[in-house]
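Pilot study result, target chain (214 residues):
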Amino acid sequence: MKSEEIANLLEQYGSKLILYARQWSSSPEDIVHDAFLQLIQLQFPPAVPPDNPIAWLFRVVRNRALDQCKLQQRRREREQIHALERQNEPSPSSQFLEDYSFSSDPWQGIPEEQKGIGNWFLPDGININNGVHHTPLANLDHESRSKIINGPIKESKVEEALKQLNPMDREIIIASIWGNRSFAEIGELLGCGTSTAHRRFHAALSQLKTILSE
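Predicted structure:
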């Protein structure tokens, strides 16, 4: 890929990837920045660039954000263990190790409160690309916006509605509506079939619209 093509990817997908990473990460801009740096490095031999750079970026951003979230939780657990040990209390270290044993489940090790999107909709939007602000609802085209809402609505209400969704369903909604990913790509990201991603999307979309209409 030429540098201009990578710059175009950043322009088109930078804010989408930041919003996607914000489901798990408190520093999504750093996650996306590192992913683009890795993409640039893959353009030089003997590295092999990805065939589908957009799908690759979403996968890398997702994995990095999940890893960061788990590492932060492990750090907090260690701090709690050390604090208990200093107080000569029984250490829950064995339970800690059991909780964080290897698993294919990407949500393992992430506390329930962090499975929500937090401040996913920032009041002032997301600042990337020379100070251009991107607000989640303003960035949606009419077709995408009409899938979830009709007429004006506060972003905080959409945020609260998204928080009420199952984490996997929320990720599918975000990847599809804000990330413009196909159900085949979403299925690959989440490790499920295309039909499953499609079915869960429509069920979650129906739930989201019901919540927003209340």
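One observation from the pilot: Confidence is low (pLDDT under 50) at residues 91-135. A full batch analysis is planned for the follow-on phase.
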